[in-house]
Write a structure and sequence with these properties.
Blueprint (H helix, E strand, L loop, with lengths): L1 H14 L34 E2 L10 E13 L8 E5 L9 E5 L1 H4 L6 H4 L4 E7 L1 E3 L2 E5 L6 E3 L2
Parallel strand pairs: 1-2, 4-7
Antiparallel strand pairs: 2-3, 2-5, 3-4, 5-8, 6-7
Amino acid sequence: MKLRLLAILLFALPLCACTVPVAADAPSGSAAIESDVEQAAPPERPDGALDWSEARANIGRTATVCGAVVSTFTATRSAGQPTFLNLGRDYPDTTGFTAVIFDDHRSAFPFDPALEYDQREICVSGEIRPHEDFVQIEARSPEQITVIG
């Protein structure tokens, strides 16, 4: 039995002697993937843009505020049915920053802002205003919001 198994292994071994491409033989860089679509890098933060954490110190100023959207919420039972894009800190943390889009301006957006901007890095431009204990910019059009990541 051992002799038969050895003969089978010795016979099968030459059949398996095939060449396998080595990673060094494969194309690398842009030649590795051929695509007709050139991927553009997302825009960077504009010069002079504030980080979300700096917005509170700039209340009353018209500026561009950037940061990661950590949560979104549309308050369908509140007056104006606002959509909140919370940057930096999640609601109800008052140290965060919020971009707010009211229902009467949401139709200017060809998409649902709560879905489109969730978990994205954005910049929003406008007047930084206080609202209760929060700091926010009201976005009335998609041109005020730029996705940067």
